[in-house]
Each structure stands twice: as structure tokens, then as C-alpha cells.
């Protein structure tokens, strides 16, 4: 039973819950940015570059070849898939990354500004002497007068 209790304390600890929430929000934000880039930014970039669809841009290193069969239907030469470097998808993902990185930078900058603007807490005034301390001070003062 101790293991379950220890795990429960670990799971509801503030840092872990905050991290989980941040992870879920980050994934959701990433999807929003991807949608924004794919649906709005890249069509505009494509229009500015003459109607180019960057997701289709690639350098073909080896063309695909269909399988060659003989008259009996046996495969003489197996099918070869295309080998290519898909730089258009890389450019799209790079734009995604730049937007996410800029958004995270702005959030961190705002948090740092909030931390800097928070005035330091005024030191608490020490509490005055308690009734017992006041009474002891009176007794001390009285004893000093007697001497």
C-alpha cells in the first residue's frame, strides 16, 4: 500500500501537474501552428513564388521503377521505390518551428518582465513585545531603581 500512496503523492505534486498541463497545451499549440502554416502561410508563400506547393518540392535521387514480370507472371526485376530528399516538407516544418519558438520566446519574455516588475515584499515589521515581555521589562526596570 505504501507504493501506491507514494505514487499518488508524486502524481499530484505541483511540478508534475504543471508539466503535464504545459505538455498538453504545447501539443495543442503545435497543431494550431501547423494548421496555420499549412493553411495560411504556405499558400501565401507559394503564391509569392509563382504557385509553388512546397510540400511537393523534392530532389529525386533515384526514380521509382515498376516491377518487371515475364510472360508467366514471375517477377524478373523487383519494384524500386523512389528515393528523394523532400526539402519542401522540411521548409514547412522549419517555418512551424520558427513560429513556435518565437511564441515561446514571447511568453518567456513576458514572464521575465512580470517577475522583474513585481516589487520586493516589504519586510514585515517585527511584532511588539508580548505582555510577558512587557511585564519582565517593568520588573527589570524596577530592580534597577532599587539598586
Total number of helices: 4
Percent helix range: 55-70%
Distance between the termini: 69 Å
- Strand tally: 4
Instruction: Give the uncertain stretches in residue-range form.
Output: none
Radius of gyration: 35 Å
Which sequence of strands runs across the widest sheet?
1-4
User: Strand-and-helix sequence, N→C?
Assistant: HHEEEEHH
Shape: elongated
Please tell me the overall pLDDT: 84
Largest sheet features? 2 strands, antiparallel
Class by SSE composition:
mainly alpha
Give the amount of beta strand, in percent.
5-15%
Verbal overview:
It is built from four helices and four strands; from the N terminus they run ααββββαα. By secondary structure, it is mainly alpha-helical. The protein starts with a helix and ends with a helix. Helix 2 (14-48) crosses helix 3. Helices cover 63% and strands 8% of the residues. A two-stranded antiparallel ribbon has the order 1-4. Strands 2-3 form a two-stranded antiparallel sheet. The chain has helices at 2-11, 14-48, 87-117, 131-146; strands at 59-62, 68-69, 75-77, 83-85.
